[in-house]
Amino acid sequence: MDAEDVGGVHIKYLYHCPRQLWLYLRGIRPEHLNSAVQVGEAVHETSYARGTPVDLGAARLDFVDGRQWVHEVKSSGRPTEADRAQGRHYCHRLRRVGVEAQGAILHYPSTRRTARHPYTAEEAEQAERDIAEVLAVAARPTSPDRLARSRCRGCSFTDYCWTE
């Protein structure tokens, strides 16, 4: 795996749980069995259908508006650092292919909120650090430690981490 292979899901999992990222990178993909993931897919399919998805290979973002803001639809009710990191990563990827992304607008349809995050020089530096961290997790021969069990609520990887 190299930097060009790092996509939005890798960044999201890095922020959620490095162990989740490590398992995902090794082909363990239980998401389709998780009801929260299914709800998220339904929200995504029924919200903001006017935009055209943008496929950047390893990264697939919801849409980019005419002012070059990345738009991402999220199923959760509240913003998380993982959401912001994913938007930042998409801006970074777009800039690398010559699109001057201005930032990310995160949409939360369940609470009718949006969060706007301009893409600054500091955000660009953090995007590079995030990619380096994903690559470091990918290179580990053993999985990172589990998080506290209370942080695993709703995670589709719970059985892989907590079954003894």
From TrEMBL:
It comes from the Bacteria. Coiled coil: none annotated. It holds the Pfam family Cas_Cas4. Residues 8-162 form the DUF83 domain. InterPro entries: Dna2/Cas4_DUF83, PDDEXK-like_dom_sf. This is Dna2/Cas4 domain-containing protein. The lineage of its organism: Bacteria, Bacillati, Actinomycetota, Actinomycetes, Kitasatosporales.
